[in-house]
Specification:
With about 325 residues, the chain is mainly beta. Helices cover about 0% and strands about 40% of the residues. A hairpin with a 4-residue loop joins strand 17 and strand 18. The radius of gyration is 18 Å and the shape is globular.
C-alpha cells in the first residue's frame, strides 16, 4: 500500500475491539509498552484505553482527570506513562494502571506569551515559561523530560526526571531554532532531539542541550514522531486544505494535500509514504495526529478526526480514528 515500497504495510481492518459503552470521536495519541500492549489517549470522552496486541480490550482509566483537550501519551524507560493535556497546561506521569505520580505545570494556569485563543496560533507574540497549551513529551535515556510547548507558546522545555526545569529554548518564527506550533518531540538513543515544527512544515534537530543541528523539510505539517530501535523515523502528517496557509510555503491555492504517514531512514531518505484524498477509506488518513510502533514493526496511527474534520461536516461520523498497520517487509539490512 505504501507509495514508496522499500517498506510495506497493510492495514488491519477492524483491529480495535471497542467495548460496549465506549466511544472516541478523536484519538490523539498511542503508545506501546514493553509487552506490546497498546495504550491510546482519547477525547470525547477523555481517557486512556488499553488493548492487547490483537486488539482485545484490557482496561481504561483517567476518567475525570483530563480535559477535552488531551494531546499525547508516551512511555518512559521505567514503564511509567506520561500524558500531555493542552486544555489545562499540564504534563502528568502515571503508573501503567493509572495511579498519578507527578504533574508538571499548574492546572488551568497558562504562561504569558501574548497568545489569544480567538486569534489562533499566530497570536503568540513571544515565548514564555512552561506551559501554554503544551503538545508533546519525550523521555531521554537518562530520564530527562523534553516538552514541546505548543499551541500557545513556541518553546521546548527540558526537565529533570523529578520535574525540575533545567532549560528552555525557542522563539516564534521560521528561522533555525524557531517554531510555529512545535507539535511533538522525540529524543533518540543517540542523544538527538527531534521537534515536529508543524506549521513550518519541517522537523528540526537539536542536541540534548538545545543546540540547533539541522532540519528536514520534505515533510508536511508533521504532527507525531516515533523513532524505533532500527533508527527509523515515523511521522504522521496533517492534511493541508485549500485555503490553509503554510508559514513556509504560503497559501494552499489549488489542491488538497491529504494527510499521510511517512517512514524515513536515519538520514531522512523516504522508505514509505502513503495517504490519499480518499481519507476515510481503510488505510488512508483524515487527520493523523499520533504514531507509534511495536516490537514487530507494526504501526499504530491515531487521528483527531472529529476535531479536524467531523465537526465541520467534512467527513462522515464513522470515519476512522485509530488504525493498525502490519509491517509486511523484514527488518532493513
Amino acid at each position: 500500500m505504501a507509495i514508496v515500497d522499500k517498506l510495506r504495510y497493510e492495514v488491519l481492518e477492524g483491529w480495535e475491539q471497542l467495548p460496549e459503552g465506549f466511544k472516541h470521536l478523536d484519538v490523539v495519541g498511542a503508545a506501546v509498552d514493553a509487552n506490546d500492549r497498546v495504550y491510546i489517549i482519547t477525547r470525547s470522552d477523555s481517557r486512556v484505553m488499553v488493548y492487547e496486541r490483537d486488539g482485545s480490550f484490557v482496561t481504561a482509566w483517567g476518567e475525570g482527570v483530563f480535559t477535552p483537550r488531551t494531546h499525547c501519551i508516551r512511555f518512559g524507560p521505567d514503564g511509567s506513562v506520561y500524558t500531555v493535556d493542552d486544555g489545562d497546561h499540564t504534563v502528568r506521569k502515571f503508573t501503567p494502571d493509572g495511579k498519578p505520580l507527578m504533574i508538571l505545570g499548574t492546572p488551568g494556569v497558562a504562561s504569558d506569551t501574548g497568545y489569544d485563543k480567538s486569534k489562533g496560533t499566530s497570536s503568540v507574540a513571544h515565548s514564555g515559561p512552561p506551559f501554554n497549551r503544551p503538545t508533546g513529551v519525550a523521555i531521554a535515556p537518562n530520564g530527562d523530560l523534553y516538552v514541546s510547548d505548543g499551541y500557545g507558546n513556541a518553546r521546548v522545555h527540558r526537565f529533570s526526571a523529578d520535574g525540575k526545569l533545567i532549560q528552555t529554548w525557542g522563539e516564534p518564527g521560521t528561522g533555525p531554532g524557531e517554531f510555529h506550533v512545535p507539535h511533538d518531540i522525540w529524543v533518540t538513543g543517540e542523544g538527538k532531539v527531534l521537534v515536529a515544527d508543524r506549521e513550518n512544515d519541517r522537523i528540526q534537530f537539536f542536541s540534548l542541550e538545545g543546540e540547533y543541528l539541522g532540519q528536514w523539510t520534505d515533510v508536511q505539517r508533521p504532527t507525531g514522531l516515533y523513532v524505533d530501535r532500527e533508527g527509523l523515523v515515523y511521522v504522521s502528517e496533517l492534511w493541508w486544505r485549500v485555503g490553509d496557509r503554510s508559514y513556509t510555503h504560503g497559501r494552499i491555492e489549488e489542491d488538497n494535500r491529504p494527510g499521510r504517514v511517512s517512514v524515513l531512514a536515519p538520514d531522512g531518505a523516504i522508505l514509505a509514504r502513503w495517504g490519499s484524498n480518499d481519507r476515510c477509506a481503510p488505510g488512508q488518513f483524515c487527520a493523523p495526529h499520533g504514531i507509534c510502533v511495536d516490537s514487530r514493526g507494526d504501526l499504530y496511527v491515531a487521528e483527531v478526526t472529529y476535531t479536524f474534520a467531523g465537526k465541520r461536516g467534512l467527513v462522515p461520523p464513522d470515519c476512522h480514528t485509530l488504525q493498525k498497520f502490519a509491517r509486511v517487509t523484514a527488518a532493513l539490512a
